[in-house]
Amino acid sequence: xxxxxxxxxxxxxxxxxxxxxxxxxxxxxxxxxxxxxxxxxxxxxxxxxxxxxxxxxxxxxxxxxxxxxxxxxxxxxxxxxxxxxxxxxxxxxxxxxxxxxxxxxxxxxxxx
Amino acid sequence: xxxxxxxxxxxxxxxxxxxxxxxxxxxxxxxxxxxxxxxxxxxxxxxxxxxxxxxxxxxxxxxxxxxxxxxxxxxxxxxxxxxxxxxxxxxxxxxxxxxxxxxxxxxxxxx
Lengths: 112, 111
What we know:
The complex is a heterodimer. Helix content of chain A is 0%, strand content 47%. Chain A is an all-beta fold. The radius of gyration of chain B is 13 Å and the shape is globular.
């Protein structure tokens, strides 16, 4: 496919469990972003990867959140010891440098 | 602190009834202002980028304009398929390439 692909599309887990969310960006895009969209809130920036540079982690809400980008392509967002307030839609976007960000359809995460 | 405020929160229009959505922003230095459309259960879909005051962009029934303090998304003769949430975001020169989003305007166009 030509767009940003995210998996799973939905994830339900119990409080305290760890979760991994995956993002496959558009081929050739060097920049990759993670955002979170909570009910009634705007999209909130989490982390940004650009090429081989150190990621911008300034938006991560706590040390329970981490992300990796392997080989400059696929990225995984990991949330450890999930809490109910982590319930949200997690959106991934990618872009070429200086170009608009294109979003995937997100992973809807529900913490029971 | 950078801020993006969109109004109204929700808007209901009759088909063919033109209107405008507002995005007010404060940012230390503007790299770009972006408009996205989001349908339920989907990710945001890119519409426009505006870079400097006075700039305008058009696509079908949509026209985006920019001043130093706000942007407008004008919708001319809307159709039911224009129903969606419209998101405004700013990219500041001092915050890398992350987007700072407003909470959006939910638009419903009825036949």
